[in-house]
UniProtKB/TrEMBL annotation:
InterPro entries hit by this protein: Isochorismatase-like_dom, Isochorismatase-like_hydrls, Isochorismatase-like_sf
Pfam families, per database record: Isochorismatase
Origin species: Roseateles agri
UniProt domain Isochorismatase-like: residue ranges: 10-176
Name this polypeptide is given: Isochorismatase family protein
Domain of life: Bacteria
Record has Cytoplasm as a keyword: no
Keyword set includes Hydrolase: yes
Key words of the record: Hydrolase
Annotated SUPFAM superfamilies: Isochorismatase-like hydrolases
Phylogenetic placement of the source organism: Bacteria, Pseudomonadati, Pseudomonadota, Betaproteobacteria, Burkholderiales
Amino acid sequence: MPLTTLDPRTALIVVDLQKGIVALPLAHPVENVIGRTRALLDAFRKRGLPVVLVNVAGGAPGRTEQPRRALAFTPDWIELIPELDRQATDIAVTKQTWGAFASTDLESRLKSLGVTQVVITGIATGTGVEATARQAYEHGLNVTLAIDAMTDGRPEAHDYSIRQVFPRLGETGTVQEVIDLLETRSA
């Protein structure tokens, strides 16, 4: 479903744009993802809308069939990239799971601000972004996915999430479409 509207209290959630992850091999140029995310950050901050910056510093426990990628969650690896220009008003969330809502206080923080909708960007489309979108949807938030501001290390996972999963969780569109809705709303 194409973008139709943004609620008055919409928050931007940026998933895992951190030094270790942006250095991994990705399906799309990470510079484009960062640049488009930065455009959204500027647009949300200009309007005083909440911004959430998420990083991952671990993984959920439990056995899996596929071996887990051994990642070194060093302080440098988990540090948010400087291009995000973290502000004192930004909400910072460090997660230990794929989604930003599981085992964090993100839901209560957003609800305390009156947030009813989220726009999500980041890496990786088929894991961190998708899990965050699913959890937001399950918590009753309206979900918008800025599909040109995300990528994945697995092109097939990126494409599957965008074509099959995201339309069932919310609306999808480009960064420019989100910015146009923000401008229309504040005009």
